[in-house]
Amino acid sequence: MALDDNQINRWANPPSNTENEKCENAVSQITDALRPLFGNSITVTRQGSHRNRTNVRLDSDVDIAVVHNDYFFSDIGWLSESDKALYQKQRTPANYAFSQFKSDAHATLQAKFGAGIVERKNKCIRVGGSSTRINADVVPAYEHRRFSSYGDVISVGIEFVTASGVHINSFPQQHYDNGVKKNESTRRAYKSVVRILKNVRNHFADQGLMKIEDMPSFFIESLVWNVPDSYFQGSTWRDDAVSVTAKIWNDMRDAAKANDYAEVNDLK
Fold first, then answer.
1. pTM of the entire structure?
2. Do β-strands 152-161 and 167-170 pair in parallel, antiparallel, or remain unpaired?
3. Rounded Cα gap, residues 199 and 55, in angstroms
4. Cβ-Cβ contacts under 8 Å for 194 (sequence gap 6 or more)
5. Cβ–Cβ < 8 Å for 22, 133
6. What residues form DSSP beta bridges with 159?
7. I need a surface site. Which of 93, 139, 142, 204 has the fewest CB within 10 A?
């Protein structure tokens, strides 16, 4: 694949102000729809590529987390057996099932935007876009609390349950914070390299050489985040992209190094 530097430089650029404005409109319109029912008990924020400013052409949907702050799922896998037993003895089950929360959010969004615009899916509630907002995948969630000992929370993320009953947790705030730090420590090259590699993936997909889902955006961000800052010192975006890709390629051929790679949140 022969690419000139102008193409690579365009791929490195962040999304346009117009696209960012449509993202913000989606968040504000969905927040306005849900706030009358849930009040200040929910936190609504965009997450994923759009929030992290690593989105590219095919990232046409914005992920919006709607987190109910009054309820949480607990991760007690880090506790001692005695602390686990104590926690289970003292815990009080929530009086608001997660499935009901998702149903209430779905019904409220349908009432606001119309049944033809809102669709309940396995992991999210899809809200179709308009002339002023982009498509949104709304993810109702409870807090995810990781305990280090009985009563001590070491990390807070979000967790939701899919329609098929699978629990999924993530740490979007930690992901965002660590991405910002990495970008600053690499002279703002980290996110540009991520965008370049996502565009390379999209180019391969356009040529029928791979599928987008074979290389998720989150995975690309995490691979690049693990590369030491010294590999982001090239004089051009091409230099940085080649340097970072070579480092990842070599590390993935070494099991010890590959197994040491972490998600951007640095908690998994």
1. 0.88
2. antiparallel
3. 10
4. 54, 220, 221, 224
5. yes
6. 142, 169
7. 93
Beta bridge pairs of residue 75: 146
Q: Which two tokens stand for residue 45?
A: 């924020």
Domain boundaries, given as residue ranges, for the chain: 17-170, 176-258
| Alpha-carbon gap, residue 156 to 255, rounded angstroms | 30
Side chain identity at residue 262, one-letter code = A
pLDDT by residue (tens digit) across 134-145?
999 999 999 998
The DSSP code for 40 is G
pLDDT for the residue 15: 73
- The per-residue pLDDT for range 147-178, each reduced to its tens digit, is 876 667 678 999 999 999 999 999 999 999 99
What CATH number is given for 17-170 in this structure?
3.30.460.10
Q: How far apart are CA 72 and CA 159, in angstroms?
A: 8
Distance from C-alpha of 63 to C-alpha of 158, rounded to nearest angstrom: 13
